[in-house]
Specification:
This protein has about 325 residues and is α+β, with helices and mostly antiparallel strands. It is built from 12 helices and 10 strands.
């Protein structure tokens, strides 16, 4: 995993910081956005600009990079598919005193309460992947919902959340690799993590806490990408739900004995769904982008909320869970 140089990191801090929060991941995320992208590479050893045509060419390149950056920010910050930045910033101010996990859960519940974010799979024609969006508050699937709520919970402004989105979803990539001239991003770039298991293992979205939630067992079926016995999960009947906290990210392990579980595994992944936990009156509640309804509980095709234990009892496609917890920025 590539990282920025210290001089580039300082330039990123000076020019693009959106707040005083600079824990390790946040610095790395913005550094990935600009420093690794090539901003300020034309420096002589002493820190002065290099002379001659090289400097001119590098200035032109930096100008192109900044244009790409501005296009990306404007496309995602001010487009019709994003909630107004002023609305996001006002909500962030209210949530600022809360721990990061509670902020993440609050954002998940915020979208649920709005009730107007429709389920659209990312690779459908209007999905965020096909449209090249970092932000789509009108349409979502379970991955985008997880991305967006964690990014908002870890940021202090709507702008910062967009910066954070690029820096984590495309960690180590350059703007030239990922951002198109109109500001859209390319999710097919190799640096993007396409498998939910890789997202979990990356550490960008918190530390894995699976083993703390109950007795684990090895997945005996595996997939072509994750061999049998290499993944430990908590079976649904072994889960200790009281150990979950608001903001925890839940990854649902598919049951290979069901047709839908087999379909996910044939594609290489073990994880078939993601969601965010919000503890309400001591009960861990799952807030997630539901592609379909759950009879007698909700209609689906939007962001929904249901007790986690109820969901696990009712949905046969999942045999257990894994989880991560974000405790810093």
């Amino acid at each position: 995993m590539r990282g920025p140089s210290s001089s580039s990191d300082r330039q990123v801090r000076r020019r693009w910081r959106g707040s005083a929060r600079y824990a390790t991941l946040w610095v790395g995320a913005l550094a990935a956005l600009l420093a690794v992208a090539g901003i300020a590479r034309a420096q002589a050893p002493g820190g002065a600009p290099a002379a001659g045509p090289t400097a001119d060419n590098e200035e032109e390149r930096q100008a192109r990079l900044m244009t790409l950056y501005d296009k990306m920010i404007q496309f995602n910050l001010n487009g019709p598919h994003a909630r107004p930045a002023a609305e996001i910033d006002a909500e962030m101010a209210k949530l600022a005193p809360l721990p990061v996990g509670e902020r993440i859960a609050a954002w998940a519940d915020w979208f649920y309460q709005l009730g107007d974010t429709a389920y659209v799979y990312g690779r459908d024609p209007q999905g965020y992947v096909s449209q090249g969006r970092l932000v789509d508050d009108c349409h979502t699937d379970c991955v985008l919902f997880f991305y967006r709520t964690t990014e908002l919970g870890r940021s202090s402004s709507a702008l910062e959340a967009v910066q954070f989105a690029f820096g984590t979803r495309f960690y180590g990539a350059s703007l030239e690799e990922v951002v198109r001239p109109d500001g859209r991003v390319n999710y097919d770039t190799p640096v993007h993590l396409d498998y939910a298991m890789d997202i979990l293992r990356s550490g960008y979205w918190g530390a894995e806490i699976t083993a703390s939630l109950g007795s684990t067992m090895a997945d005996a079926a595996g997939t072509g990408r994750y061999p049998a016995g290499t993944v430990a999960y908590v079976p649904k009947e072994k889960l200790a739900p009281e150990k979950l906290q608001s903001g925890d990210v839940i990854y649902f392990i598919t049951d290979e004995t069901t047709s839908r579980g087999r379909a996910v595994r044939e594609g290489g992944d073990l994880i078939g769904h993601l969601g965010i936990i919000k503890v309400e009156n001591g009960v861990p509640v799952l807030i997630h982008a539901a592609s379909r309804g759950l009879g007698g509980l909700y209609p689906g095709a939007r962001v929904e909320k249901v007790a986690l234990t109820t969901y696990l009892q009712r949905v046969e496609n999942f045999k257990g869970i894994m989880a991560t917890r974000i405790e810093n920025f």
